[in-house]
Amino acid sequence: MWFKNLIIYRFTKPFTESAESLEAQLSEGRFRPCGKQELSSYGWVEPLGKQSDQLVHSTNGFLMLCARKEDRLLPASVVRERVAEKVQEIEAAEHRKVYKKERDSFKEEITFDLLPRAFTRNATTFAFIAPQQGLLLVDASSFKRAEELVSYLRGSLGSLPVVPPALKQAPASIMTQWLEQTPVNFELGDEAELSEPGDEGGVIRCKRHDLTAEEIKIHLEAGKQVNKLSLSWSDQLNFLLSDDFSLKRLRFGDEIQEQASDQGGDDAASRFDADFALMSRCLCDLVEALIEVLGGEDRARLELQA
């Protein structure tokens, strides 16, 4: 359950739903497996799995949600191959050419026949709402996957006034400055990506490298900026920060995980609760700390997006 990635959304209006109210609204969108002729299915599942039948897990005011997506795996190459075989058979037997409209009809028939026998793949996405902090945090490695959950949540609730944080300054510019002076409570890691401005600009990727070394300074003097930067925060978290304000490869420190282990009970539900309580507080504090060192939020622009 410990988040590995982070996509951040800011509420433009206070979130006032109780856990009970949220539970009732999500129940209408519970996950169900794909039907025989469905390519995919999406819905809410229990964050605690078999340990609880609740769709909303509440701890210290934080609300944990979990969505599941199931896809039927029907490779386009398989369908194309079957269509080609059928076209060849008809053209050989009837001595005529098969045109696009008829090919499309064959494609639909073959897809309809193969779908019920296709394997399925499941993926879950966790997120939690922090009403007091005005945040929705999603454990997703891409905005596309995060937006799937946000869109489905919006459909379940009727509305969901969230947007990515409106930062006053471009993160790339601030992150570049950090190679010379890292903000308080943050330390540089050993990984970065630097690029020249523009779509055609060169890109330099560094791993297991001293980011204060002279060769890095030469790239900065040539006009490159930092797009991705590995950091550690207050000995609690290591992560890779991108200039789109997403975080990847979150690694929680031993101390916080040991604290969760000490506070958790013997059963899975108690351990989940302890993990969630510490993780949620830690991530919210990190987000606010990052916003501050990145120059703060443009509240006026945030209100315009509301």
Automatic annotation (TrEMBL):
Keywords: Cytoplasm, DNA recombination
GO cellular component: bacterial nucleoid; cytoplasm
Localisation: Cytoplasm, Nucleoid
InterPro entries: RdgC
The keyword Cytoplasm is annotated on this UniProt entry: yes
GO terms, biological process: DNA recombination; regulation of DNA recombination
Main localization category: cytoplasm
Molecular functions (GO terms): double-stranded DNA binding
Signal peptide extent: none
Highest taxon of source: Bacteria
Function of the protein: May be involved in recombination.
Entry similarity comment: Belongs to the RdgC family.
Name of the protein in question: Recombination-associated protein RdgC
Organism expressing this protein natively: Aestuariirhabdus litorea
Biological classification of the source: Bacteria, Pseudomonadati, Pseudomonadota, Gammaproteobacteria, Oceanospirillales
